[in-house]
Amino acid sequence: MVDQSQRQSGAPAKGPNQAVTSLNREFRAVLVSEEAANIGRTIAQIVRGDGWHEAKASAVLVDAIGAWLGRDAVQPMGFFANGTGPVEIVARVGKYYITGHGIENEDDLTVNCCERHRARFSQSRIEDYDPDSNNTRFTWGSPLAQRAADRLAGLLAEEVDAEIARVVLGV
Predict the structure, then answer these.
(1) How many domains does the chain have?
(2) What does the pLDDT look like over 147-160, one tens digit per residue?
(3) Of 26, 36, 20, nearest to 155 (Cα)?
(4) Residues 35-44: pLDDT tens digits?
């Protein structure tokens, strides 16, 4: 919300720019499509849990984003809740983070991850995630996980132009 003094001084309102907001809308529309829901159910069978909520925290989504935008543009990051191992994997792309919940900046991501995982802000962090780590919560690279990631990457490529996304996200 912009206060009165900002309106009068001509200062722009804070928040994501229109291009990021539009890209986020397109990305989220793909995630709620019927085909993505089928992929989500597949992923949920891979990671612990039994629903789309668990699939949204999956490294498979980050792998799909890497295939869609290019591996050079995507850095896998883990959200470590309350000082434990990663409970969610996100894709850092340029200045933004892409999760199963949409495109977020770092400040919002930390707060939202803490809320999603009921974690204490002071005891949680976001840092590099090694896809080759032996983490049983996330499956990365198994044949089933790879098929799911490839299907989702193809769906993203059909619906959202990767070059435009890279520019908008600051790659």
Answers:
(1) 1
(2) 888 999 999 999 99
(3) 36
(4) 887 777 777 7
Four-point Cα dihedral 81, 84, 89, 95, nearest 10: 60
Whether residue 79 is contained in a domain is answered as yes
Q: For residue 123, how far is the Cα from the chain centroid?
A: 21
How is the beta sheet containing 74-80 ordered, strand by strand? 102-104, 96-99, 86-93, 74-80, 125-128
Cα dihedral 146, 148, 151, 155 sign: negative
Structural contact between residues 159 and 47, judged by C-beta atoms closer than 8 angstroms: no
Structural domain including 138 reads: 17-169
3-state secondary structure of 64: helix
Q: What percent of the chain has pLDDT over 90?
A: 32
How many Å apart are CA 144 and CA 42, to the nearest integer? 8
Residue 67 phi, psi dihedral angles, 5° rounding: -70, -35
